[in-house]
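Project outcomes to date are best conveyed with an example. Our students and postdoctoral researchers have been running inverse folding experiments weekly, and each run begins with a structure described purely in tokens. The record below, which covers 217 residues, was selected by the lab manager from last quarter's runs and is presented without edits.
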């Protein structure tokens, strides 16, 4: 904390975080998707390892010492989301995702999935928390066509693309990951079919499609 000049573990809020294991303070992680938007509550967290100093560029582009606090989320604690705010964040992330080039999208998706937090909470991804980059990746890769029946999506959306649903081959509820290689884009009929019949031939077909990278198409 502190945008300019050296930071110290013993100053103000940094001290509070440094001592958080002994001072009885509860840490909460907030995230903000846009500088003008308010912070939204993410989760209760705790220090995962001792804080350390790292050199980074400050707001004036001068190298300065930065206090790094390795945090981990306290899993299992009920999170009360303001759904309107969350919905807003999802729409915002969707808009950002749509504007990215294929290369940027692939890189962001990869980066997002290599963060330890993601792996740890991977099984708990709910309908609300599904990664918009993964969804955008799957839709873009499908190029408007259902990846099972190969027909075009049933109707055109306002943005000009055809409606398809993103399906997780190994369901999130069964421990599947919210990553590009576990998702495909399906028309609503095929989506129902795959969930009701759970046909191994269809699953195998889709698994091959899910392994194709965006740039390979
Ligand atoms: Zn279909
Ligand atoms: Zn599905």
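After processing, the design step wrote out the following sequence:
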């Amino acid at each position: 904390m502190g945008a300019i000049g050296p930071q110290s573990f013993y100053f103000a809020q940094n001290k509070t975080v440094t001592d958080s294991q002994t001072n009885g303070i509860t840490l909460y992680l907030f995230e903000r998707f846009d500088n003008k938007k308010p912070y939204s509550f993410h989760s209760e967290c705790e220090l995962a390892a001792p804080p350390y100093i790292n050199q980074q560029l400050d707001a004036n582009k001068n190298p300065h010492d930065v206090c790094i606090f390795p945090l981990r989320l306290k899993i299992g604690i009920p999170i009360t989301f303001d759904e309107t705010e969350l919905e807003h964040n999802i729409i915002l992330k969707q808009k950002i995702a749509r504007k990215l080039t294929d290369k940027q999208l692939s890189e962001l998706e990869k980066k997002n999935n290599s963060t330890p937090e993601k792996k740890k909470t991977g099984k708990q991804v709910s309908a609300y928390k599904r990664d918009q980059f993964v969804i955008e990746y799957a839709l873009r890769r499908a190029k408007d066509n259902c990846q099972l029946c190969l027909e075009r999506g049933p109707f055109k959306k306002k943005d000009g693309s055809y409606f398809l649903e993103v399906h997780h081959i190994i369901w999130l509820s069964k421990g599947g990951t919210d990553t590009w290689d576990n998702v495909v884009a399906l028309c609503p009929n095929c989506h129902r079919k795959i969930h009701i019949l759970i046909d191994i031939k269809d699953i195998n077909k889709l698994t091959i499609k899910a392994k194709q990278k965006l740039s390979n198409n």
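Strands lie at 27-31, 40-47, 52-57, 63-68, 71-73, 165-168, 183-186. The pocket of zinc ion (ligand 1) is lined by residues 146, 148-149, 151, 186-187, 189-190 (CB under 6 Å). The training component of this project remains on track.
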